[in-house]
Amino acid sequence: MAITGLVQDVRFQRHLTGPGHPERPQRLARIQEVLDERGLTKTCRAIDVSPIDLKEIRAVHSDQYLERLRRTCADGLPFIDVPDSAICPESLEIAMLAAGSVVNAVDEVMSGRWNDAFCAVRPPGHHAERHVSMGFCLLNNVAIAAQHLIDTHGLSRVLILDWDVHHGNGTQHIFEEDPRVLYISLHGHPGIVYPGTGYAHERGKGAGYGFTINVPILPPGRDEVWRRAFDDPILPAIAKFDPQFVLISAGFDAHRLDPLAPLELETESYAWMTDELVGAAKRHCSGRLVSVLEGGYHLDALADCVAMHVSRLLGS
Fold first, then answer.
1. What residues act catalytically?
2. Which among 73, 164, 187, 304 would be 20 to 30 A from 128, CA to CA?
3. Looking at residues 213-242, what average pLDDT do you find?
4. What does each C-alpha distance from 205 to 34, 158, 175, 177, 179 come to in angstroms?
5. Which of 3.30.230.10, 3.20.20.80, 3.40.800.20, 3.90.850.10 would CATH assign to domain 4-314?
6. Is the bond preceding 179 in cis, omega lying within 30 degrees of 0?
7. Measured distance CA(10)–CA(63) in Å, rounded
8. Mean pLDDT over the full length of the chain
9. CA–CA dist 18, 294 (Å, integer)
10. What phi and psi values does residue 140 have, to the nearest 5 degrees?
11. Rounded (10°) angle between helices 141-151 and 91-111
């Protein structure tokens, strides 16, 4: 059985987004309930939750954006940049805890203490651009972790696989000129699904051309479509890149019950995709893998998918 780290902390529920907002504290509360009920919390190792150093954030986000985010939270405004990105006075503090815990997870896996980890954090991150918030996201947790692997651990080949139903525009744009990061995204077709980016022809820029792979999926986007995408182009691209670390932007909102997108994945497909990426990590980087929660807005489906995902990481 693998030794799997787990980030869970009630403080993430203090990021308040207001009545009716889909990215709500109850998401993490329900995940914790189900992980506890199935004995998965006790089986995993708890990861330290501590705020990230501002220097690490500045490697990904601009000073101007961070100051604007600080000021907007301090002023008690209801959102930053777009109404979707709802905030409260504590939101920056909680976002720094989320990013810090993901970096802690990466460090623990790199140290060899644990094989892999899952980070049940919020606010999510993959829509956050270098200079602006988008789509519920304040700090780009996965991008910060990838940059940390490059700057602190000296890695030169980091894979980010994003299976959230919404394209991770922020992650793509942050690394689109960087050949050290292979960004692969499966998502609802941008002609139909927010944020309208992630067409197949978007392949990176300059030295990073070819290190962005987008797989847009038209409705109904059932299980067999996602599995074919792993056969080609995803697994061959991973094999060619030969990653030293695997990061997953793990959104569970392509599930057939999710209210925010028109795709129809079953819970079992998330288990299957987890197995595929665990296998790739074992083949290429001694199993080093950290998965970070992004979307998923049907509470029961989200919690069920996360429990299945964590159980696969554990190898149980």
1. 127
2. 304
3. 97
4. 42, 17, 9, 5, 9
5. 3.40.800.20
6. no
7. 28
8. 97
9. 19
10. -85, 90
11. 40
